[in-house]
Amino acid sequence: MRAIGLALVVGGFAAILVAAPPQQDRAPIERAFRSFWSASDEAGAAGRIEAIIRTGVAFEDALTLVRHGRTYSADVPRGLQVGRTRTFNGMDHRYAFVVPESYDPARAYQLRVHLHGGIGRLRPAAPGRIRTDSLPGSVEEIGVYPTGWAESEWWSATQVDNLGRILDQLKRTYNIDENRVYLTGTSDGGTGAYFMAFTDTTPWAGFLPLIGDMTVLGAPQVGVDAGIFPGNAVNKPFFVVSAGRDRLYPAHVVQIYVEHLRTLGAPVTFRVYPDSEHSTAWWPQERAAFEEFVHNHPREPLPDTLSWETDRTDRFNRAHWLIIDRLGRAEGERRLPDSNLLHRGREYDFGLRINSGADRGRRVSEIVSGSNAARIGLRVGDTFVELNGTPVQTGRDLAEAMPRWQLGEDVRFVVERSGNRVELRGRFEPAEVDVPPAPIFPRRRQSGRVDLVRRGNIVEASTQGVSAFTLLMSPSVFDFRQPVTVIANGRTVLEGRVEPSVATMLKWTAQDDDRTMVFGAELRIDLGT
Q1: Rg, the chain, Cα only
Q2: How does strand 238-243 pair with strand 206-210?
Q3: Where are the domains of the chain?
Q4: 79-299 sits in which CATH class?
């Protein structure tokens, strides 16, 4: 049937009446989408996109269907279950998950992933032996308990892939609130939560590391599988709990780096149990604050501001609607503040330097000339035996005792020098000095960073070491009927209309399976070299 145009004159104005186009047969569209939603994984969904395109579905209609998502079944397993993934390198990973017995497919559920400690074990724990009740929550949610071990540590690309596959599997079966997916972990698992925050922020609403330490990721023996950029933490909130008597990761050390994240702009809640050791015995007292934090921090799927840094473009190069495509200098780029430099301002310096690798960290490696330590009589090569009458067994004994001394306090050392024991006395009168900024994590290769600010259809980008990036454009925040302007390093690099695409929308829906983070167009910005 073809449209028929009729010209009518009403009050001196001509109006054209056009017969309504025939209504599109929705049955093929609905069948194609049902097939798309029923795919068991990302690859399966991607393979069914072409069938949807062939139906000729309009962008707005497809958008409505994507935002609605699949219809979830009530006939699904509940209680304690076991799942399995196979990562990109062929490794099998099993995980446990717990679904409320009262699960209702009509409502979206919060999901919490728990990373366990003891990552150095030689074999993965059997999922059935994982303690799913060790940190009981207070809200109805789906709990997920992955397994890690020495060959698949939390700070590896393998585990980033594993967690992504777990989320993908569960979202295809259970109605999960995409904006309430949280990552927590204990000890090594807490350190793993930091790693995910620095490398794969997009799926998570917040990070809750418990008795972990981000600086572990900088140790050479850990062999972390990525460059670590603390500035990436600014995109999500943190809830950190540490223990004052934790001999592995004492709170006073963790606090230095947590405060650094806060200085960078990361929303951080830091809680300390001064008399606790390396355990979670404090959980009954902390649970309410933990749950309140989670409740108050849903994910913003399309944030107006983003900052992301990476040293590679094959992985760890995406943050929500930003993808870093190519590293290299760009015209007009500015030097952005280095998030890896720890600025500690002024502090007291006793003038003592210890060789951590000799005599269990008790041997003096350097004495600053004219310092408090030099005036008391300490020398290079001395080995500490006693400190104010208390035996010194390791360098940790020194590190924990000296910060507690008061200015002007009398101190007494017993050291071993040339085979003899020597007693030294004096007053604790360290000099206040400016501490030069120091890098937190080693740099293995050149990196690039992009900072974005979006105001309506205008995007401003500041770059360093990035010559090409892609903006994923969502119809939830961009008006495709109006021109889009992209300003990079103070220069307008693009201005014009952007056409949305059903194919693009389905490509990212297959990958993210996220009803709240839908993209209608990809806008590649090439800044040259």
Answers
A1: 29
A2: parallel
A3: 79-299, 322-341+440-526, 346-434
A4: alpha beta
